[in-house]
Every structure is written in C-alpha cells, then in structure tokens.
Design brief:
Layout (H helix, E strand, L loop, with lengths): L3 E12 L2 E12 L3 E5 L6 H8 L10 E4 L7 E2 L5 H7 L1 E3 L12 H6 L10 H6 L2 H20 L15 H13 L5 E5 L7 H18 L2 E5 L3 H7 L2 E6 L2 E6 L1 H6 L1 H8 L1 H5 L1
Parallel strand pairs: 3-8, 3-9, 6-7, 7-8
Antiparallel strand pairs: 1-2, 1-4, 4-5, 9-10
Length: about 260
C-alpha cells in the first residue's frame, strides 16, 4: 500500500491575469496531519478548492487520491459531490450550518453520501429503510460522543456558542466517514481554550476514525505544535515545505510572515 493518500502536481489556478496558484506540487502522507500555511491571499483556499473540485485548474495539472485498498483516482475527473463520495471531505471558512435545525439534524446531513434508500422504501419505511436509518443514527451517535456534543444534540444550532457551532460543522464532515479530511481554518475566531479543545478533537478523529487531515490554519502556535508536515505558500507559489521545526528556521517563511525588513532585523 502506498504511504501517500494524496498527490498533486503542476496545479495552477488562474483568475483573469492573476495566478492564485502557480504550478504547485505536493504529497500528503497517509495518517499524517499536513498543514498548509501562508499569509492572507497566498492561495491556500484556492489550492484546496482545486483539489476538492470547486475550481478547475489549468490543463497539465494532476491530482491523485490514493484510497486504501483501492485503485488511485484522478480527482480532476470528478465533480465535488463525487469527490466526497470517494472519501475526500472538506470544510469551508464560513459556517454552512442550518441554524434553525438541531445538532442531530445537521450531523445527519453529513450522511447523505451514504444514503441509498429509494423514495418508495423511505416513504413506506420498509425494513431496509429502517436498518439504514438505524445505521445512520449509530454513526451520528459515535460522532456526538467523539466531540462531546451530547448535551447539545437537541438544541437548535443557532442558539449555541460559536465554538460549539464550529464543533458541529466538524462533526458533520466526520459523519461522512472520509479517508482524507480537509479543514479550512477550523479554529478561526475561537478562544485559546476552544482551540485546545478542537486540537484534541482532531487528534481523536485521526486515532478513532483512521483518517488523514489536511489543515489550513493561521495560528502558527497551533500549526507548529500539531503538524507532521508543513507547506508554505506566498503569492500563489510554494516557497517552502518540511517539518514544523524546519519551517520555523526557514528565512523565506520568516520573511513571508514578518516582512523582509523585519526578518532581517
């Protein structure tokens, strides 16, 4: 079995005359926590959008997903919902929850890719439909336990604190049971305590659900403490990659975050 779960090469995304991502290549090791960092506007979300099918890269790009025990898949051949069914799930920067619905309903929406009940079966609530409903409920309860959402599961999401809402959003993608989970700034706007909780939940998801995490995050203290491998973008180009310790010492990374003049002082 390959130790890579995702590989991409010559990935270029252009908007008009601006190249938001310019010939980026990379590899994500199975079971790892891969962090993508860079200043605002560096092209991080654009890269994730291209991998997950939201944006179409320029010809010549390659994006390969390597699911366990199955042939590799060319993700550029699929639409976003098909990529999700292959085992690649992602969150977005903004919350996409149904605020008027309770936590359980929002989590159940993450099971849609596993739903194969026919309309008549669902309407008549046949034995097969009941079994599938029970299986979905069991999967959701596992997520509820994993993320400590038991006290909130009957509450409307809109009435919950922001940190809990972010946890529900995380739980919804966990309900999809992906092999590769792409998180776009899952800790944005959180307090220090909430970030520490989210780190714990990410670790728990990796260990208990056997998944690989591809993380975009601006908090460098978080990235440097939890990532196995870090890739750094600036102005749409990859400027460095390696271990967190290596990135902390890389002059190009320091200059990108602090500015050249400050980095030289």
């Amino acid at each position: 079995m390959s130790d890579e779960i995702l590989s991409f090469d010559n990935l270029t995304v252009q908007f008009g005359g601006v190249r938001a991502c310019d010939a980026i290549d990379g590899h994500v090791k199975r079971g790892s926590l891969f962090a993508l960092i860079g200043p605002n506007g560096a092209g991080k979300t654009t890269l994730v959008n291209a991998i997950s099918g939201v944006y179409k890269p320029l010809p010549g790009a390659q994006v390969q997903f390597h699911p366990a025990g199955k042939p590799s898949e060319d993700l550029l051949s699929y639409r976003p919902f098909q990529i999700a069914r292959l085992g690649v799930a992602r969150t977005f920067q903004n919350l996409g929850l149904f605020m008027g619905e309770n936590v359980l309903t929002n989590l159940l929406l993450g099971r849609y890719i596993h739903e194969h009940t026919r309309l008549i079966e669902g309407g008549l609530f046949t034995r097969r439909a009941v079994k599938r409903e029970l299986a979905a409920r069991q999967a959701i309860e596992r997520v509820v336990d994993l993320l400590d959402l038991g006290a909130f599961k009957r509450e409307p999401v809109g009435d919950l604190p922001y940190g809990v809402q972010k946890r529900v959003e995380f739980g919804r993608v966990l309900a999809m049971e992906p092999e590769l989970l792409m998180l776009d700034e899952p800790m944005a706007g959180m307090s220090v305590d909430e970030k520490q909780d989210m780190i714990r939940y990410i670790y728990a998801a990796q260990d208990e659900l056997d998944m690989t995490v591809f993380l975009i995050e601006h908090d460098m203290s978080v990235v440097m403490s939890i990532a196995d491998h870090v890739m750094v973008l600036d102005f749409g180009q990859k400027i460095a990659e390696g271990t967190p310790a290596e990135m902390q010492q890389d002059e190009r990374v320091i200059a990108a975050y602090l500015g050249t003049e400050m980095a030289e002082n």
